[in-house]
């Protein structure tokens, strides 16, 4: 079945440093979504990418979807303590597919 | 704002018990999902439903069943709970279009002893 690999599993950064998490799929994705889960919380939707090569920004967060629609990345510039949490990518294959396959997530710790 | 409500935040059951996890959403979403979340394994899809009385197996359906008699309610059933089903269970809902995001409930932490 479809697999979505996400690296790194953990990342510890000093506040103010940048952070990137990468997502790779074994199959071409129709779209990819990103979620953030704060400690003790539930995943919350951040953004969706649909087009090949798409880049979207949300303040300090930059999301990219690869040209082949098999990989994606989330980059956070100048991390803050409020960025702490686990970031998940989730991909969909094929038209009409409601099923999302999640990566295992990257847990971000920010040292003040 | 979409609200997805799971009936229990914490649940402790004994091995062999039949367990019901309930989930209700208030936004008339067509799709509903049950995931389990385990450390190091991320979120794994157990079952999903795209319409009333319709269900589809996800990646790990063994040991589970589901029921969707009404559009707003999606139940996960553990027919005979086992210790390896100790986990965080997350319910989610979404609109019935491919590009719709998931809205998650707060989760039920189930412990089977």
Short description:
Chain A is mostly beta strands. Helix content of chain A is 0%, strand content 54%.
Query: What composes the largest sheet of chain B?
Result: 7 strands, mixed
Helix content of chain B: under 10%
**Which geometry of chain A do the CA atoms define?**
globular
Number of helices of chain B: 0
Low-confidence stretches of chain A: none
Unreliable segments of 5+ consecutive residues of chain B: none
Radius of gyration of chain B: 13 Å
Distance between the termini of chain A: 41 Å
Overall average pLDDT of chain B: 93
Distance between the termini of chain B: 37 Å
Largest interface: A-B, 28 and 25 residues
- Secondary-structure element order of chain A, as H and E? EEEEEEEEEEE
Structural class of chain A: mainly beta
Could you explain the architecture of this structure?
- The complex is a heterodimer of chains A (about 110) and B (about 110).
- With about 110 residues, chain A is mainly β.
- Chain A has strands at about 5, 10-15, 20-25, 30-35, 45-50, 55-60, 60-65, 70-75, 85-90, 100, 105-110.
- In chain A, the strands form 2 sheets. In chain A, strands 2, 4, 5, 9, 10 and 11 form a 6-stranded mixed beta sheet that branches. A 5-stranded antiparallel beta sheet of chain A has the order 1-3-8-7-6, with no helix packed on it.
- Chain A is globular and about 40 Å long.
- With about 110 residues, chain B is mostly beta strands.
- Helices cover about 0% and strands about 55% of the residues of chain B.
- Chain B contains no helices and 11 strands.
- In chain B, strands 2, 4, 5, 6, 9, 10 and 11 form a 7-stranded mixed beta sheet that branches. A 4-stranded antiparallel beta sheet of chain B has the order 1-3-8-7, with no helix packed on it.
- The mean pLDDT of chain B is about 95.
- The interface of A and B includes residues 35, 41, 97 and 99 of A.
